[in-house]
């Protein structure tokens, strides 16, 4: 397919050697010109342009980051640095930190702990997350949050809670770029055994999470962690994961619906983004 047939729709593109932190706060506005996006072939460039057009018609505000781990291409749309309630996507960050700490001997994960971790990932079990957070947050309750930042979630901010507990896993905000960097940490920096363990759990999530990045389709062997919650300022519906041979693509999506919709609309948006970008690649 000729390059002149492609549409350039760029918000932020990084070369493979660029720093890990995505500078999308000063992203280039959406433009239309000839050629393909740096780091992406023409087919993916067209898909990205189609997704950005699709989001213009969807309720709420959606930010997303797509990464091609083979070519090094990274695309972050104009909302990729918006702070959004993490909902249950943060459970993936909790699991990654627990595995990292156990790997270096800082903690010892019991069989019960691992059962809780798997429930937290498979069914998005909140009670399991509460138990692990209480046990491993440390005396000052900052052990997890410090690790989140070290593992790429540099914009994450704990929010005031309605209890005496602070910080709490369920009162946090981050950006799609944070979730992208978390996936990069999992795939490129974790011990291979721990990485494969997490990837297996992310591929085996319960049917209540078969949306969002799952829209890439079964042939792409996706894995994910989704998050959804009704907050005071409206529903948030988020999805982060990977798809493709060798986990070639990672995708982080955060949809803040505000007063314009709820869980069904957000899940539909997130799933359609993944399908448009990744199905059949």
Can you describe what's shown?
The chain has helices at residues 42-55, 90-103, 111-122, 126-136, 143-150, 176-188, 192-203, 263-278, and strands at 61-68, 74-76, 84-85, 157-158, 172-174, 223-231, 234-243, 249-258. It is of the alpha+beta class. It has a five-stranded antiparallel beta sheet, with helices on both faces. A three-stranded antiparallel beta sheet has the order 3-5-4. A hairpin with a 5-residue loop joins strand 1 (61-68) and strand 2 (74-76). It is globular and about 55 Å long.
What tags apply to this protein structure?
three-stranded antiparallel sheet, five-stranded antiparallel sheet, 281 residues, 8 strands
Radius of gyration based on Cα positions: 18 Å
Parts with pLDDT < 50 across at least 5 consecutive residues: 1-33
Strand and helix order: HEEEHHHHEEHHEEEH
* Intertermini distance: 15 Å
Content of β-strand: 15-25%
Q: Would you count the extended β strands for me?
A: 8
Helix content: 25-40%
Mean pLDDT: 90
Biggest sheet details: 5 strands, antiparallel
How many helices does DSSP assign?
8
Shape: globular
Adjacency order of strands in the biggest sheet: 2-1-8-7-6
Structural class: alpha+beta
């Amino acid at each position: 397919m000729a390059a002149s047939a492609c549409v350039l729709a760029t918000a932020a593109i990084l070369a493979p050697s660029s720093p890990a932190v995505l500078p999308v706060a000063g992203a280039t506005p959406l433009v239309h010109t000839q050629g393909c996006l740096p780091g992406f072939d023409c087919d993916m460039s067209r898909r990205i342009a189609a997704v950005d057009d699709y989001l213009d018609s969807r309720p709420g505000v959606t930010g997303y980051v797509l990464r091609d781990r083979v070519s090094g291409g990274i695309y972050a749309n104009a909302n990729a640095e918006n702070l959004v309630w993490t909902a249950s996507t943060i459970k993936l960050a909790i699991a990654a930190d627990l595995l990292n700490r156990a790997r270096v001997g800082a903690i010892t994960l019991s069989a019960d702990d691992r059962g809780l971790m798997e429930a937290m990932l498979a069914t998005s079990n909140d009670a399991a997350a509460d138990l692990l957070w209480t046990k491993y947050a440390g005396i000052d309750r900052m052990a997890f949050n410090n690790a989140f930042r070290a593992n790429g979630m540099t914009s994450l901010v704990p929010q005031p809670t309605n209890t005496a507990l602070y910080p709490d896993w369920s009162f946090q905000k981050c950006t799609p770029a944070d979730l992208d960097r978390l996936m990069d940490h999992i795939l490129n920096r974790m011990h291979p055994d721990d990485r494969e363990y997490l990837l297996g759990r992310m591929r085996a999530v319960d049917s209540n999470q078969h949306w969002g990045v799952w829209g890439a389709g079964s042939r792409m062997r996706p894995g994910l962690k989704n998050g959804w919650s009704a907050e005071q300022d409206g529903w948030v519906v988020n999805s982060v994961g990977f798809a493709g041979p060798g986990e070639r693509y990672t995708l982080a999506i955060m949809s803040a619906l505000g007063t314009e919709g709820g869980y069904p609309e957000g899940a539909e948006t997130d799933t359609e983004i993944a399908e448009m970008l990744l199905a059949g690649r």
